[in-house]
Amino acid sequence: MKCASLVAAIFLCALSLAGQTAPAPDSPLAVGKIVGRVVCSAHPEQTYALYLPSAYTPRKRWPIVYVFDPAARGLVPTQIMKDAAERYGYILATSNNSRNGAWKPEAEAASAVWDDTHARFSIDDQQVYMAGFSGGARLASRLAQVCNCARGVFLSGAGFSTDAPPSRDAVFPVFMTAGMLDFNYSELGHLESQLSSLGFPHFLRRFDGAHEWAPAAIWPEAFAWMDLLAMKEKRLLRDDAFIAAELERFTTAAQEIEKAGNPLYSVEAYRQAASAFDGLASTASLTERAGAVEKDASYRAAEKRERDDLAQQSSLENEILRATSGLREPTADRAQLRQQASQLIADLRARAAHEKREEKRRVLERARRGVFAVMIETGEPLIDEKNLALAEIYLSLAADTRPGNPLAACFARPLPAKNGKKERSPAIPATRERRRAKKPGPGQSRNPNPRAGCPRFRPRVPKTRRRSAPRVL
User: Fold this and answer.
1) CB 372 within 8 Å of CB 408
2) 417 vs 122, 369, 389, 421, 449, CA distance in Å?
3) If you ran DSSP here, which 8-state letter would residue 170 be given?
C-alpha cells in the first residue's frame, strides 16, 4: 500500500474505532499540569505529552489540539502552549514519537495518540485541531487534508507540504506564525495570498524570533481566533462577553503594530481582526482604520519594501545555490565549486554581522539561515544514498553558514567511508573520544552513521504519495 493510502487508512481506522481500541485507564491523569509521558494503551511503543486544563471533567466535551514537533520533543510545545490551553480550555496532546522522516511512522504516531486520547478523555470532535512546527507543520496540514477531522490547524515556521498544497478540496482555518528571522518567512507570506484566493480562513502572526515555535504570548490569540470561528460556525455557543473582550484585545494588538511603525503589517492586522469578528460584532472601526492607513504614502512604501526584501532574500540564496548546483555533475570540479560557495557564504555572514540597519540585517539573516537549511536538506538524503563524499561537502557548507548552530555541529561529525576508514570534514577534527571509540559489539555495524541522531528538517516524501491520497470521509 502506498504511503498516502496508508495515512488515510490509519486515520479512517482511528475515526471509526475511537474509544474501542484502547481501554480507559484505571486512574485519571493529573489536571492542571503537564504529564510528560503518557503511554498509549493499545500501542505502548507510542507516548505523548499531555496537558489537561484544571477545570477538566468528563461530564462535558473539550477541544483538543494534536501537536507535532519535528524532533519529537513532546514537552517543548506543550510547555509553550499550556498557559493558553489552561485559559481557553484546550487539551494538548503532543506526540513523543512523531518526527521529521518517513510518513508511515508519523501517521502511525498520530493515529495512536488519537485513539488513546479518544479512549481516555471526553473530546468534542467539533473542536479538533492540529498544530505543528517546521516539518511538524507540514505534517499537521497534511493530516488535516487527509482525515477531514480537523476544524483548523496552527502552523509555526512552515506551511503545507510541497506535494500537497492547499486546495478547495479541503478547506479549514489556518493560523500561521512566522519569526521575522525565519528562513521560511517568505513562504508563509506567499501562503497567505494563496489561502486568500482559495477561501481559507487564515491569520498570519509575525513575532520577533527565528525558525521556532511561536512564543507563549501568541497562543492566547491563536486559541481565541479559533474559538471565534467556532462561534460563527455554531460549533461553540456564542459568548458575548468573550467576544467583546477579544475584540478589544485584537484591536489593541493592531494599534500596537501600527504604533511600531509598519503600516503594511498594521493594515493586515486590522483586516484580519475585522474578518475574525465579522458576523459577531461591529467591525466598522477596524475596516475604516485599515482603509485610512492604506491611503497614506507610507503604506505603499512599506509594501514596496516588503517585496524588495523578499526578492533580495531570494537573490542572495540563489547566488549561493547556483554555485552548488553543479556539484552533482560527474565532470564537476567539486573543490572549486565548494570553495566558491564557501566564499559566498563567508561574505554573506560578514554582511549580516556588520549590517546596522535592522530591516536589512533581517533580510541577510533570513538568507543565511535559508542557505543553511538547503545545505542540510540536500546533504541528508545523500547520506541515505551512501554518497558520503558529496554529503560531506553540503554538510560542511551548512556548518560554514552557521558555525555555532548545534544542528550544524551534529551534521559535521565524521562520515564513515566505504573502506571502513572515517571521512571527516577538514574543518572539524576527530576528537580524542572518537579515536578511542570501542569496537562494535555483536550485531552492531562496523560502519555506523554518526548522524543518525541528527533531526531532519523536512520529511522524506515518496513521489507517489499525491496520486494515491483518498479522502477520509
Assistant:
1) yes
2) 54, 29, 9, 5, 10
3) B
Same domain, 68 and 196: yes
Q: Is the pLDDT of residue 441 over 80?
A: no
Report pLDDT for 46. Answer: 97
Residue finishing a domain among 222, 237, 252: 237
pTM of the full predicted structure? 0.83
Task: Indicate the helix (H) or strand (E) that contains 185.
Answer: helix 185-198
Whether pLDDT at 303 is above 90: yes
Taking Cα atoms as reference points, which of 226, 277, 227, 230 lies closest to residue 250?
277
Q: What's the grid cell of residue 266?
A: 498594521
Taking alpha carbons only, the member of 282, 272, 301, 285 closest to residue 206 is 272
How many residues are listed for the chain in this entry? 473
What's the pLDDT score for residue 102? 83
3-class SS of residue 49:
strand
CATH of residue 199's domain is: 3.40.50.1820
Check: CB of residue 125 under 8 Å from CB of residue 63.
Answer: no
- Domain boundaries, position 415: 304-429
Q: What whole-number distance in Å separates Cα of residue 318 and Cα of residue 348?
A: 12
Indicate whether 176 pLDDT > 50. yes
152 to each of 91, 166, 234, 359, 395, how far by Cα in Å?
15, 13, 15, 32, 36
Percentage, residues of the chain above pLDDT 90: 74
Residue 455 within any structural domain of the chain: no
Question: Phi and psi of 126, rounded to 5°?
Answer: -85, -5
CB 367 within 8 Å of CB 375: no
Question: For the chain, what is the domain count?
Answer: 2
Of 148, 165, 136, 152, the C-alpha closest to 222 is 152
pLDDT of residue 407: 67
